[in-house]
Amino acid sequence: MIKRTLFLMLLGAVNAQAASFDCAKAKTADEKAICAHLSLNDKDVEMATKYRFLTGLFAMGGRGAMQDEQQAWLEKRRACGGNIRCLGARYDERLRQLNAIYSRIDKPL
């Protein structure tokens, strides 16, 4: 329960920020759409926060696999271009994947 509370506090603190990348430097259609739409921006921050949290829990081998999965997901996101519905679906998909990874972790509490 303590870890979950800490995670939610961290998520809330980060959620107050903008996207997980600098919107002033957004170049691709997907990045521009994320910066222009609050719901996508929020999903981006949530996904990035969960991803960073989870990669910090794994040793190098597991971390490398997660990085490969993240890169593959970023390619899928880029393929959406500026399509808001597609981007939302990609974020929902990735958030489900990250939540599933978290649910499989043995938690001491």
Automatic annotation (TrEMBL):
GO cellular component: extracellular region
Span of the signal peptide: 1-18
Keywords: Signal
Domain of life: Bacteria
Protein name: Lysozyme inhibitor LprI N-terminal domain-containing protein
Lineage, top ranks: Bacteria, Pseudomonadati, Pseudomonadota, Gammaproteobacteria, Enterobacterales
